[in-house]
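Researcher: Please predict.
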Amino acid sequence: MKRAMFVAAMTILAGAGTADARGIAAFSGRAADSNQQSCFTTNTNIGWVTNTQCSGAPAYIIALDTDTNGSKTINIGVEIAESFATTSCHSVAVARNGIGATLSPVRTATQAGGLTNLLLQGSNVTSQGLLYVECDVGQNGSLIQVDWNN
């Protein structure tokens, strides 16, 4: 039930139903450091990825497709199991040639025991640029769904 309500809220916030909105399950990403891939467990039935193995907050990266230039707004759902284990995310837009990048401010989820939506704004995709979300996922924290304007 919690998941259904969360997905509905994310859909409204992301403007789903418009032609330019996209969404992706969080498990489609990977650990930023390949040596930390084993920190993460995926649940492909519901799309979640959870840091079940590592203390601290290893980084997890999700690539997002874009068809248009401009400022992007990204909503990412997170769940925190313990109050000491926060999860922080930001978005990064990089020019195709690798020169120049824009980052959104870092947003942090701190409330344990519930689903939280982090709104990331400020990454500006240039012509044929690339867009990513990077999250530092606290122990037993989960990334759920990523929605963004295309």
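Model: Residues 1-19 have pLDDT under 50 and may be disordered.
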